[in-house]
Amino acid sequence: MPAYVVGHKSPDTDTVCASIALADLKSKMGTECKPAVQGKVNDETKFVLDKFGVETPEQIESAAGKQIFLVDHSDRSQSLDDLDQGELMGIVDHHKLGDVTTPNPIEIWAWPVGCSCTVIKGMYDFYGVEIPKNIAGIMTCSILSDTVIFKSATCTDADKKAGQELAKVAGIDDLQSLGMEMFKVKSAIEGTPIRDLVMRDYKDFDMNGNKVGIGQLEVVDLSLLDSVKDDLAKEIKTMKGEGSYHSVFLLLTDIMKEGSQILIASDDPQVVQKAFGVEPKGEQAWLDGVMSRKKQVVPNFEKGFAS
Ligand SMILES: [Mn+2]
To answer: How far is the CA of 115 from the centre of ligand 1 (A)?
Structure first.
């Protein structure tokens, strides 16, 4: 039976494409592997897989009796619920180390870079294995997606170098325009229920004993959200009431203007002032240069909530 390579729940482009790439590399090195996903792939990922003619991985819900490689996460909360029922073989990731443990020695590749596919590019190079053109294509797209076309605060020189080298293999000349095409697909809001938009990329945090929810919508132009902005603001207020939150924030990130408008539903809106030094107008504020939840928004709010 092949081993499975699987990424986190609510799969994004990096988690899906990293599974495919690592399964390819491992299989070529003698460990037969199949890529898998936990849940439906999103529209951006579908676009990327279609563009390079790569099949959508099989969906799995259980690790029982399987050998498993994890990509793009090492937190149990984001993993297969019964991970312990399988055999964890390895982890390839670019996040903080999570809480999985194993009874046996395992392989771990974790780099503090902007994208899992940057790490996997390094693995292909390390082992001297050639990257197929279509897989180089989807890996390029993963890097463009996770680093917001190399603009995110999480982007490193290693991501830029890997992106450029992969693009060459894939025969992509214009990374900027490919990135914009992807973000247009990602920005699409037509026909999407408001709650789904808020939840598209949403995480809960505990900040100094306060429950705080932070969602993010990345768009190529904020005006794309004009027609739904009022509804989004209402929706986060509803969510705040339902979930005994101190605050629910929604970042509307404009990847061209390189900043985010933050919608605020909070017991204390001044926490935005404390975190970012910006006075909210009504229940929103413009945060210039702020694009990364992981590197900018969460650390600033943690300071804001501590003071
Ligand atoms: Mn990732």
So the answer is: 5
